[in-house]
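Quick one:
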Amino acid sequence: MSILNQQKNSSISEQNTYDFFQNSIEINYSTGLYGDKDKQISNYIIKEIQDNKLLFTVINKRENISVLVANLFKIHILNWRPYSRIHMDANEFTEIRSNSYFNIGYQGWANTVRIFEKLGYLTIFPGGYFEAIKKGYLTKLKISDKFEELVKKFNLSYQDILKRTPPISLKDSKGKKIKVVNSKITNPIHKKLERYNSLILSSDIDLPIDMIDHDRRRKIGFANRTYTKCYLNRSYKLGGKYYGPCWQNLSKELRGKIKINGEETVELDFNAMHLHLLYCKVNKRLTDYIPEGIDAYQLPNRNRKIVKTSFTCCINNNCNKDNVNNVVGPKVAKKYPEIFVKNTSYRDILEELGSHHPEVRQFFYAQIGSEISNMESKVSNYIIGKLTRKNILVLNIHDSFIVSIAYKDILLNTMMDGFKYLKYSSIPRVSQ
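Output:
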């Protein structure tokens, strides 16, 4: 029964129905079951299909089942039963298939979804168009009680699903992805990422899911557990930071609840790292100008969060003196709405910060964000590489790192050694 037909038998208005069905998550066709559960669940469902004598002529049956179960499980994780939205149009699958890790075609996917409905694991609500508001909506899937029973039967957790991501991402000047080819440059990067990600996937990383509110759960992406190094502007000398895993989207407070292989963890953070890296560019030390222990971002009568956000924006490639207020303002409003004040002059804030750091103010608005990111990534490379070779799992949160408490001192020393190894002149203080 279509949703429009359902409306004839309910009091739900067309507008309310449209709003209701926006509460959904788009299927990710590179996310599937991972580990032992993949084979176990695929075998279970295939047997159930056979027992019910259902016609299931789908190429790559297991892959289709794996992707569908994993994506439906993401609904379960959110714990408030929203919907998955999917494309059921063959024309959309040319691009979907080319970008998907799994070999999934339209016909096989559509048949798998319908089979799951026949088995009672989900309900399909066909997509449509609301003439009154001139908007359409994709087909929606809603999990059933039977799917919840499947989750319990196999004791599924977020560690049983995985979004497959490429180890390297390369973008052009406009942020468009470029195909990465094997080369003398990319092969070593690939091998190191593969070793690092393998250690992650073989480890038990326990996240505090029960402490995360519903709205935040939608944004975290629990299937994301591997890193991609992201390079910019067609160059492997620009960018290179580590992105991807779900723990990067947790607050610092929640990251403190992470356990690695059952052990409590600690997070160590480089203080004012990007400022220090600017001083490195002129071969000077920040502490020669700002005494040790004094916050390098602190300005009289200014909120530190706003100062730091302004600085981060001003060294990025899309910011200059003319547009700085328009660049920084929306970021502050989104990230710190409680302290956002309209008509704030972020240019004035940066003038004040520059007067505190005259040795590096030349880099404000100098479009060097990608270069600074690359310098930062080299530090991360050293830390991650050294600890991975020791079989010590370290979770990267850009300029901070998480390890089991037992390895705290090793991490601290390795963080300091990274700057020394790279011969960076200005070494940040590390704090917990």
